[in-house]
Amino acid sequence: MSALEQRPLQRVVIAGGIDIHYAEEGSGSTLVFVHGGMGDWSSWAPQWAAFTPHFRCITYSRRYSSPNRNTIDSRSHSVLAEAEDLSALLERWQATPAVLIGTSYGAFTALQLALAHPGKVRALALTEPPVLPFADRSDGGRDARLRFQREVMDPAADAFAAGERESAVRLLTEGINGSGPGESSTPAGRERRLRNAEAMRALLISSEPFPSLDEEALRHFDAPTLLLYGERTLEVHRATTMALSRLMPQAQLLQVPDSGHGVHRDNPAVFNSVVLDFLQRHVLGCR
After folding, report:
1. What is the pTM of this model?
2. Do residues 206 and 77 make contact, with C-beta atoms less than 8 angstroms apart?
3. Residue partners of 138: CB distance under 8 A and separation at least 6
4. Are strands 18-25 and 56-60 parallel, antiparallel or unpaired?
5. Do 70 and 45 contact (CB within 8 A), yes or no?
6. Would you give the end-to-end CA distance of the chain in angstroms?
7. Pseudo-torsion of CA 24, 4, 199, 103, nearest 10°?
8. β-strand 98-103 against 56-60: which pairing, if any?
9. Burial bucket for residue 193 (CB in 10 Å: 0-12, 13-18, 19+)
10. What is the C-alpha radius of gyration for the chain, rounded to an integer number of angstroms?
11. Best CA proximity match to 4, nearest among 118, 14, 15, 39
12. How remote is the C-alpha of 222 from its chain's centroid?
């Protein structure tokens, strides 16, 4: 069991009766980790020991992830609701402005929060936020997005509808992360995805799970931002990240070697090093 997983979980209830579990350690400026689609608070175990000496670190489980027990009550759930959850949590934790580190749908959540409430964000480090409408702006991106919908999202939605949860999670794992080596292919990675399947089901039954973002707000967003992507990530993620980087010319774009979509778990040593270096220059060095 990792050092993070040995931490006691705390619980808070935000507006709407939304139950959220989180862990906290460290002191100083607040840094919040925001996990991806089939992750939870424990997803950031490879980062915990590296970041807690420098920050007050918080990692939480988003609305429909383990061990939260929130019931899916909408067919319109999206990053918009997730960002407002995070906004409310930052207030409860007295954590503004915060550094946000997010991956995949968690990066999408952090970015939407930053655009809607820029005063609550000090810096961002984001890995492959799936703002899928932006994929169409890159060469081959539209074809990659349509293929992703046809070969991954639609079959996974059908599997969930048929009660075939394990099949849905397998389709999503391979379709989002690829079938190559990486944490997602390990027993621990598969178990984490299974226990957090409801988070993806909420998106798959949503009428608009991947809304676009405010382009003008992106162009003018001025908080320090690091955009990361994996060396062997899938084309739909690469196309989306490249398009986003063009809409955020002030952001630093960085490829992480020997990693797929799950950069922070596939290559934690490099991820930790480059993100801490970025934060040293833009946050820690500015105290």
Report:
1. 0.96
2. yes
3. 238, 239, 240, 242, 243
4. antiparallel
5. no
6. 34
7. 90
8. unpaired
9. buried
10. 17
11. 39
12. 20
DSSP at 259: -
As a whole number of angstroms, the distance between CA 283 and CA 44 comes to 20
Q: Tokens at residue 55, please?
A: 């920050």
227 three-class SS: strand
What element of type H or E holds 210?
none
Do residues 182 and 259 touch, judged by C-beta distance below 8 A? yes
Joined together, the tokens standing for residue 204 give 């798959």
- From 10, 31, 39, 17, select the one nearest 85 (Cα to Cα): 17
Considering only CA atoms, which of 147, 128, 129 is closest in space to residue 78?
129
Distance CA 80, CA 68 (A): 19
How is residue 230 written in tokens? 């994996």
Q: Which residue bears the tokens 């609550």?
A: 120
> What angle do helix axes 197-204 and 187-195 make, rounded to 10 degrees?
50
Instruction: Identify whether the C-beta of residue 61 lies closer than 8 Å to the C-beta of residue 192.
Output: no
DSSP E strands: which ranges in the chain? 10-14, 18-25, 30-34, 56-60, 98-103, 121-127, 225-230, 252-256
Tokens of 9: 């979980």
Return the SS3 of 275: helix
In single-letter form, the type of residue at position 67 comes to P
Per-residue pLDDT of the chain (287 residues; tens, 9 = 90+): 799 999 999 999 999 999 999 999 999 999 999 999 999 999 999 999 999 999 999 999 999 999 999 999 889 999 999 999 999 999 999 999 999 999 999 999 999 999 999 999 999 999 999 999 999 998 899 999 999 999 999 999 999 999 999 999 999 999 999 866 665 567 777 888 899 999 999 999 999 999 999 999 999 999 999 999 999 999 999 999 999 999 999 999 999 999 999 999 999 999 999 999 999 999 987 66
